[in-house]
Amino acid sequence: MTPLLQVNQLVKRYGGLVATDDVSLALQPGELHAIIGPNGAGKTTLIGQLAGELRPDSGSIRFDGHDITALPTFGRALRGLARSFQITSVFPEFTVLENVALAMQAHRGHSFGFWTPVLRQAELVEPARAAIQLAGLHHRSDAPVAELAHGERRQLEMAMVLVAQPKLLLLDEPMAGMSHQESGKVVELLSSLKGRYTILLIEHDMDAVFALADRISVLVNGRLVASDTPAAIRANAQVRIAYLGDEELPA
Amino acid sequence: MKPWRISQSVATAIVLLLVLLPLYARLAGEPFALTFGSRVLVFALAAVSLNLVLGYGGMVSFGHALYLGLGAYGVGILAHHGVHNGWLQLGVTILTCAIVGALTGLVSLRTTGIAFIMITLAFAQMFYYLFVSLKQYGGDDGLSIANRSDFGLFTLGSPITLYYTALLLVLAALLATHRLVHARFGMVLRGCQVNERRMKALGFSTLRYKLSAYTLSSVLCGLAGLLYGNLTGFAAPAYMAWTLSGELIVIVVLGGMGTVFGPLVGAIVLLISEELLKALTDHWMMILGPLIVLAALTARRGVYGYLLDWDAWRAQQRRAGKGAAP
Questions:
Q1: Is residue B324's pLDDT more than 70?
Q2: Which residue is closest to A83 within chain B, CA to CA?
Q3: What pLDDT, in 10s, does the model give residues A16-31?
Q4: Least CB-CB distance to A102: which of B179, B187, B209?
Q5: Which CATH number fits domain A1-80+168-251: 3.30.470.20, 1.10.357.20, 3.40.50.1970, 3.40.50.300?
Q6: Whether the Cβ atoms of residue B240 and residue B65 lie closer than 8 Å to each other
Q7: pLDDT of A250 above 60
Q8: Which 3-state string (H, E, C) describes A22-86?
Q9: Which of A101, A217, A228, B225 could form an SS bridge with A232, CB 3.0 to 4.6 Å?
Q10: Looking at CA atoms only, how far is residue A51 from chain B in angstroms?
């Protein structure tokens, strides 16, 4: 099977610091692949390059059969690469429904519509409602985002990523700052998406990662030190030393 | 029954008064009221255009007077060469403003924040000195417009026609803004204001939309300039001065940026205060300045934004009351 995402020898330097050091990675369609690593390992830099916000110094990225290394961010999004942000970045003055409809709008032709209200366009509102339902926020559809709790905003972020049915989800710490109960909901959502979507997950919550991932890659100082099944990662001595230290791994 | 809203009542009252103003000017025998009203409407139209980029797109253009000047010169230069056809002047103004807007926008929109402010200011100053150097069109002194724009069916030479044309354009621009901000284009523009990075990640080519908004705004401001030239019978480099760009920003901020009706309210409040204070003292700027500061500090969303917030607060109170009642 050809991989959906193929990263070849990606390198990104900031002065003397090598933030991404010769990273190669392949994601099979339908796979949930997690990237873990200590703070400062270069996880967000890597996602930035995959999403198109950062240009790698060398290496290439292939997505869905095309070389997208030089494609701008919006072009990648239109090809089906959807990204969620570590710091919730939704639009606070819009309602939940307006946020998700806006995410849909990018994928439904041009946005040079000057007259008809967005909320009267079924081709935007219907998929938006479906995605909100999927993310478990349907009871809050018409609430302004400013009134949402932190966990609900993270759910909204997921709805915005899912609405256009992307081919690949890049999820940058979708559970950041969530309570145990709230992150439980996201784990539930992600496991319901498993198999239907290809997902690259960056997450600090080890319980979640080991419960969800098909494969786990470990990033340390910009290098991939291991990439394997959760069981093998747990048993990997090098990973223990380099990253996990004395931390107890979840059984 | 729909609850009564203060903001809507104020807006309706303002529109009614504006419609009736010429009648008052005639009955009271005060032609100055009509000229003053036209001036308010011209500035309101320019402010509506600025509000589109400043209030909804987060683009602080400090050079919008450029387009006001281009519109006035569109009338002035053509009239100077004996072309009084209003439609032709309109066409030339729209085309010029669209081209200048698109080109300067393309350069300045590569930047944001302070850099954007400085570049828009620089472009406006460039054109200011360009027109100062055009001696055949009066240079520094400007160009007087003896014959006003003639649209065949009507001519802007009549003060009352000019007034109602301006009023009609302002109302049309307000309606268009009202529709636009909830339509696809407006949602993208507002999204860019809050978080452009996120908009790109969602798949929007943001520059395309910001540039379109900036160009649209330039053309609308050019229309205000065309009216301004007809109102004053004059086109001068002073119409492009940065002080005038600043005044437009003050109008938008004072009225309420990012509110549909705010620019009109801002123009009314600022120009009336100016007139009243001028009658009071020669040092009117000394009083107006602090008043603007006070307004900016107390009503952060402007005068009209304050009314909207008040309505929102009352609606919330009602909801809370209902919730509490069983």
A1: no
A2: B201
A3: 899 999 999 999 999 9
A4: B187
A5: 3.40.50.300
A6: yes
A7: no
A8: EEEEEECCCCEEEEECCCCCCHHHHHHHHHCCCCCCEEEEEECCEECCCCCHHHHHHCCEEEECC
A9: A228
A10: 7
